[in-house]
Amino acid sequence: MDAKAQDVFKDGESLKGFLDFMAQCRPQKTANLLLLYSQNPEIRQVKTFEKWKEEGRTIKSGVHGYRFIASQEYEKDGVTEQGYTIRRVYDVSQVRMKQPEPPEQKSMDELMEALLRDNKVNVQVADNLPDNVQAQYIPKQRTVYVRNGMDDTVTFHAINRELACAALDRHDGSYSRAGVSAQAYCAAYVVAQKYGVDTSGFNFSRVCEQQENGTKDPKELRAVVGDIRTAAYGIGSQIGRNLGEMQQEVAAEEFTIPEAKTEKSAKSKESKSKARKQPER
């Protein structure tokens, strides 16, 4: 895991590959994200043999599972302690089942509504932000101010970045924008990638330079990954939850009342039918 953490921050392309993996892989602990990524970057959703079996699924013959760190309780001197054990898990692609379909692409209006609905952080449009400031999280006001007039995609990215900053604010006076801006930038990318929003404007070279291109202490690098994970999965979960609620609000009607055909509509249909039957001149 330490080696993979260093490799992830080697350069911009390496970091982008890992963030793409974070966007496709169901939420995992930081250690498992690094461990699973080191074994197969295509992993999407893993469960133990027993969990798949509980769901009535079987593992394809001849496949090999992946190493995975699982929590485990044990007793020492009469006291229950928390430890871990290495388990073997299987990706959804290794299971005999119809593979999950790619999620339906949502419009920017739907994504923006889901992002802002019931948010614990206030988001306000501001007309007085400088041109070089797209958005800014102000800790004392617990508010994100967004520059007016930007296009929808940039606005979406900027709000996500600042909400990620807010998610990394511990509210103990230790918040430093410089200390979380790189993580927040990466988290905004993960969210956008997860929901199919254009990410062509992102560049991670500077992020890797800040992490000394992976030569920092692996524990520090793993902490950076942990911050990205916390912010990205938190925002992504909120969007997903709100999208589900929005779909329920406009669900198809189960019981409908037949619409009575008025004389006007009947005549209109009749005239259209006659018009279609007229021979070409």
Give the helix/strand layout:
Blueprint: H1 2-8, H2 12-24, H3 30-39, E1 46-48, H4 49-54, E2 66-76, E3 79-91, H5 108-116, E4 122-126, E5 135-138, E6 143-147, H6 152-167, H7 177-194, H8 205-210, H9 218-249, H10 263-277
Parallel strand pairs: 4-6
Antiparallel strand pairs: 1-3, 2-3, 5-6
Helix pairs in contact: 1-9, 2-7, 5-6, 5-9, 6-7, 6-9, 7-9
Structural write-up:
The protein is an alpha+beta fold. The protein is 47% helix and 15% strand. It has helices spanning 2-8, 12-24, 30-39, 49-54, 108-116, 152-167, 177-194, 205-210, 218-249, 263-277; strands spanning 46-48, 66-76, 79-91, 122-126, 135-138, 143-147. The strands form two sheets. It has a three-stranded antiparallel sheet. A hairpin with a 4-residue loop joins strand 5 (135-138) and strand 6 (143-147). Helix 5 packs across helix 9 (218-249) and helix 6 (152-167) crosses helix 7 (177-194). The protein starts with a helix and ends with a helix. The model is unreliable at 271-281 (pLDDT under 50).
Question: For this entry, what is the oligomeric state of its chains?
Answer: single chain
Contiguous runs where pLDDT drops below 50 for at least 5 residues: 271-281
Strand content: 5-15%
Count every beta strand, where a strand is a DSSP E run of 2 or more residues.
6
Element-by-element helix/strand order? HHHEHEEHEEEHHHHH
> Which class do the helix and strand fractions yield?
alpha+beta
| Distance, first to last CA | 77 Å
